[in-house]
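Data availability excerpt. The first of two example chains:
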Amino acid sequence: MDRLRVLEVIRQGQIGGGESHMLDLVGNLNKEQFEPLVLSFTDGPMLDRLSSMNVKWFLINTTKPFDNRVTGEVVELMKTERIDLVHAHGTRAMSNVVWASKKLKLPVIYTIHGWSFHSGQSLPTRLARIASEQYLTHKASCNISVSASNQSTGKRSLLSFDSVVINNGIDLKKFDPDKNYKDIRKELDINDDTLLVGFIARMTYQKAPLVMVQAFKEFVDQYPQTHMLMVGGGDMDEEVQDLIKKEGLKDNITPVPFRQDVPDLLSAIDIYCLPSFWDLGLIEAMAMKKPVIATHVDGTSELISNNVNGLLIEPGSVPELKNALLKLATNDDIRKKMGLAAYQVAKENHDVNKMVHNVELLYQRYQN
């Protein structure tokens, strides 16, 4: 039997949650049965990572969703590479391959890495996003929800939505709290006895970096013996830098450009924060036994039990984020207990091998 040639499609070459998910999938697929190829719509370090993995990749540049200007190029790529199955990761990736896939009558799987609509949007924007997701999910041969709550939101918001749930997984050998890691604190000149908060995410609206800075300002005013790493980059870099300067936090926050040594960064911090408006990027921190602060959004409630293995706050709430930081900063025992409880959840429910096995079973439906 010939190997199934699967085109894995992602919106960008920068490495975020969806990109890490796809890299883990591609790296762990059974190569005797499947041949993954990757299409990205922007350049970035993810492509270098694919090269080091000997995975063939392609770049078609666009930052727009539903960009019909690239459809012809995508069609030619699929024909030239004799693609059997398309697997789109995220809304933008799906929007830019769905027409080409249907034109060639190729099956297309759509993994929903968080919905593009959420309660923080204006009503016109939210309705437009819902309409887009309605279209994309109905055009897919199969939809994958990365959590049960992700699926539940789809069923509430979209007509006749259907999906299979395959929980996100991570490589527990890579994110191992018992390994030795680089001394990030020494590299960045941060004292060992300083409480270190970590915000590791793209600087985009979705990740709420301005909320993070505003809450950290109020937190530092009450608990000055602390520091924060803001690791990542994005279209809000300048706004974030301006707010740090405006709030007088240049000595309290170290902005760090995107870097790939995430396990080393997580090992160095004491508290992980991700106040996103919609996301599922906490599992790595949990696997490293870090207490987390996150928002009540799809997927998070399945990962985080409030006051057990982390703290949950409302999206966009500066006071709640400040208070959550204070609660963890002032109690070592709570941090340790929550970190250990978080680790147990990641270990038991989010192993990459289980995730990949479930995706492979889905791929097998499309093998001749």
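And the second chain:
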Amino acid sequence: MPDIKKVVLAYSGGLDTSVILKWLQDNYHCEVVTFTADIGQGGEVEPARAKAKKMGVKEIFIDDLREEFVRDYVFPMFRANAIYEGEYLLGTSIARPLIAKRQIEIARKTGADAVSHGATGKGNDQVRFELGYYALDPNIHVIAPWREWNLTSRETLLAYAKKHGIPVEMKKKGGSPYSMDANLLHISYEGRMLEDPSREPEASMWRWTVAPEKAPQRPEYLELEYERGDIVALNGKRLTPAKVLARLNQIAGRHGIGRLDLVENRYVGMKSRGCYETPGGSVMLKAHRAIESLTLDREVAHLKDDLMPRYAALIYNGYWWSPERKLLQTLIDASQANVNGSVRLKLYKGGITVVGRDSRRDSLFDTAIATFEDDQGAYNQADAGGFIRLNALRMRIAARLGAKKKR
């Protein structure tokens, strides 16, 4: 093993990173600095501090990054309406570049010569973390325990934790806990019975959302106000980005909104099954597309839709810090200059319905032209005939040629 003097570990206090902390101390004989990013996982933060102290860690960083996370990562992603493979709102993916950035900053501050993470050798997160590390510090040494040790399953991790007296949340007799990741945008679940794609998730697994059939019998209405493509107010009250998302999670969660059961294609090549809860994000996506429908030029909107799958894949695969993602972001952000106004939505038993949108300053919806009533000459319907004939020209030529060939 290389001679490592100090390593900064991305530490959640969960099973994997708790085992890794001890493993680094025993195998690299180095000082370990722990870094826990508070990006909305709530109750995990202080237990992580206590666990790290118990393991003899002297430098413990727990940073409240909630506002930075939503403002500088979640909101820019939602300006693009990013969805991976048609369904996944990228809740885990978008948190990794921020964690990697802060980890490198801490490494520089503490004089650490290495960084470490708890991502497995089968998953996407190892790629996301390490592409971030190398983009921000090309000379950093990376320790990825899952690619080095012989602890090859959740069961062996649990045995290791038991041997060393490491407490584990949700430990269940006869099986290991779900692998979970939580932040202000979502919570994800993998492992255990979810590894069988044919089985329905246990009702007790879900934490943020009620079952749609148990949601309130009456719908709830929301109004979101936008400035330059970002939400600035909820129901008339201006809120910070993190507070907007936290409040939307609460409201949408009680209406059973945001559950997803997905088999996705990982960047490393395999398919995996995961379940996600993204209540606030589901509302944000619906509302943002609604305000764009009123304020974006048709070709700009279609260009964004063409680019979105590529942009989403860049985030999913870990290329947030890449030049191509930054270039796309510049284009996307420029498109949002006139995305201003408000959207009204109805939430009811797992569903989100847009019931109104308004942009008095930037709306491209012209009632005088769009009306089915008398438009007072605003639109000459006779013009459509020439437009259609010109667009049909190539097909008419091809049809005539086909007819000649049949003679």
